[in-house]
């Protein structure tokens, strides 16, 4: 018996990396999943992997920034499972530059992905969350639902070259605090996890090699300077960056029943490097 048996969890950006690790962690505790990725192949690969674990999973492929995505995503959960118990706004990427070189396109792309998309998803989820809570109350059931928004230590401290990302992720913290006050009456815990350096495909590449990923038709440079990684490890009390599985563990804390009296909070999963 898992702590999340029968729960319905929606995780954006869960076809690979941290998002997939989050999905696998929730699935290991019995949750049923709605998987999302920008690309179809990783989304369906994750769905098949979860099914092999013996859990139910469906895919909702698409760009979270698209105006129609939120309704499609939420409706996928309602159509497949008739419920929403956990929603993790995880999808994201960075498109860095110093302020004098940053374009409007860079600014709005990151704001749309990290702030507008979660806002739309939460707005689309509202009528279902309200109705599900009313049904629980009528039946005499006490059920707590979980929203986990993903922020970053770049929001907590700022980061040179990331004015767009730092601003968006700081906004996510404000969004979390506001929604915790709006949805508390529905027994919804709304919390936030701020990741530090987590080793994924976005951070493992050498920035000097000019590696890119295709996002929304754009070639976005990824990678971290090896010297920066070395410096991070030296400054971090734990002596290293984190793994996707460790990042997922931080998210799971806010999805578990033990968090039923915790809301409006942000924790850093960063090895205490502030």
UniProtKB/TrEMBL annotation:
SMART domains: PKS_KR. Residues 7-186 form the Ketoreductase domain. Pfam families: adh_short (PF00106). One of its GO terms (biological process) is monocarboxylic acid metabolic process. Gene3D superfamilies: NAD(P)-binding Rossmann-like Domain. Belongs to the short-chain dehydrogenases/reductases (SDR) family. This is 3-ketoacyl-ACP reductase. It comes from Caballeronia choica.
